[in-house]
Amino acid sequence: MKKTLAIGGALLLLSSFAFGMVGCEEKKPQTTGARVPKELREGYEEKFDGFVSRVHWIENRENGKRIYGRLFLPDGFDEKKGYSTLIMSHGYNASGEGGNNSLIQNVMAKGMIAYTYDFCGGARLSKSEGKTTEMTFKTEISDLESVFYSLRAEAYTKDDKMALFGQSFGGLVTSLTAAYHKDDIAAVILQAPAIAYDVYSLYESKDDRLSPDGRAGDRLCFGLQNGHFPARKQAV
Question: What's the CATH code of the domain at 100?
């Protein structure tokens, strides 16, 4: 009898644990309400010198995951006026930049708007939904595409003045996204993009890849313009 009760209790405990895990897995992050920390609430604003930061969540169009981001808006911002817009993508295991970032401050000084965000699963402390074990460069491209087209549909952005910035792994994601949507993106800015290893692997020898004739840049640009990287060769 005791053995039966023990087995039954164990099964009940396991089923409760499994149900709890499923519940946690399917739960969407809250973006409104008194229980949500103010820095995560949709529309929460933080004031800086000459501009404000506004929390703005966006849903990934392919998988439904919620993307945490912040709009940076210059003083005098008018919802009905179209602004040039810069979308900023962070590097691996990092997060969206804050108001102290010098690039954001320069963008604000130009009267533009900027948007920073956390890739889904892009970092251990990401505020967006998603696990780091589920993140790939393809999921991050999907996140960036969702951000781009969501902001592009807003009245306060200009269709022909949407630009992308990417740093490190975010630079790789930005490069590929720009190649796939080159007719929709006005400009691309890359900071230490994670694509150097592909450039080196284009060459068959160490001497070839170190040649100062500029072929690395030419071949890389050719690959991006055609929406993909050139075929890789084994470097020795």
Answer: 3.40.50.1820
Structure tokens at 49: 């010198």
Q: Is residue 128 part of a domain?
A: yes
Q: What residues have CB less than 8 Å from 16, skipping those under 6 apart?
A: none
Domain that residue 137 falls in: 40-194
Do the domain assignments include residue 204?
A: no
pTM for this structure?
0.72
Distance CA 84, CA 160 (A): 8
In a domain, 119, yes or no: yes
Q: How many CB atoms lie within 10 A of CB 8?
A: 10
> Which residues are CB-neighbours of 233 under 8 A, at least 6 positions away?
201, 202, 203, 204
pLDDT tens-place string over residues 151-209: 999 999 999 999 999 999 999 999 999 999 989 999 999 999 988 654 445 445 545 44
Distances (CA, A) of 104 to 114, 167, 168: 7, 14, 17
Token pair for 70:
């912040």
| Residue ranges with strand state E in the chain | 45-48, 51-55, 58-59, 66-67, 69-74, 83-89, 113-117, 157-167, 187-191
Q: Is residue 103 in some structural domain?
A: yes
| Total domain count, the chain | 1
End-to-end CA distance of the chain: 70
Tokens 């439904």 — which residue?
64
